[in-house]
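Reopening this ticket.

The earlier resolution said the output was attached, but the attachment link was broken on my side. Pasting everything inline this time so it's all in one place.
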Amino acid sequence: MEDFNLQGDSPEVNWRRFVGYHFFSQFQPGRLDTDLELFDKICVQSAEFPQVHGAFFLMNDQIISEPQDIDDILQRDQKGLLELYFLVVGNMDNLIQQLERLLLNLDEIGKEEEWIHILSYAMSREVILRWEDNPKLTVVSYNTDNGKAKADFSDRIRNGFSDVSSIAIDKRRLLDIVNSNENSYRAELTCNIASLIRGGSEKLGNAYITCISAQELVKLMVTSDGLLRRNMFDDNVRDSQGFSAVNQEILSTLKEYPERFVLFNNGITIACKTIKPENGKYVLESGKWASENIL
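Inline output:
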């Protein structure tokens, strides 16, 4: 409770905040540690929509903390792609009905709650005209009974979104997220041939040179929920520059001339604490891997 600034609320509310902190920290590692006001906005306690325990909105992969953020993003990028995430911890029997009522009646619903105010502006006529595509809608549910989230929305809702999906988190999946947020990973890579280069000292370590498929690389970089492990790149000296001219050319090569990609790029370096061959694969570990006992 002290580590995650959860003192003062009920155990139930604290647990909701803990789950929300770890799931949403995946989108921008470290942001919720320094922006407690944003964290409070994300952790919803709504009298009108009691089963919405978290509301998290992205525009062009950037977190929206206030309506002005939307204007700034659209001024820079011209077009915007909106993503809506709604979290429920525990029973979600009435969540879909509540979200349908919210999304279909935004103009009539009061805007006193900050998250509703932001959502209303993001889906206002003024902003809709500058959407690149219809928004994406994702329902996230945490349930210790391994329950599955079902996004059984009506056709009226589905037709208004480019994608409607659900993510179910149980205790083991939450543990994986906690480890990822602590930059602790365990991954397996399949490759046909790998050449060992010995460093000659424990301090320097060893290295392997190999060629792996793009699918293997994606498995390493993406969670089982399809989210990019952004904090995996914390030590990368060249952070993403977004849709720059160079990156647009790289994307064009991948789409139009994929066979040339390996000729135009000189490889990727993966740093880890340990690596060892195991059953025809290479097992990579980084950081301190937490056990299930912490949950």
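Reporter confirms the inline version is readable. Residues 289-295 have pLDDT under 50 and may be disordered. The chain has two domains: 11-169, 185-294.
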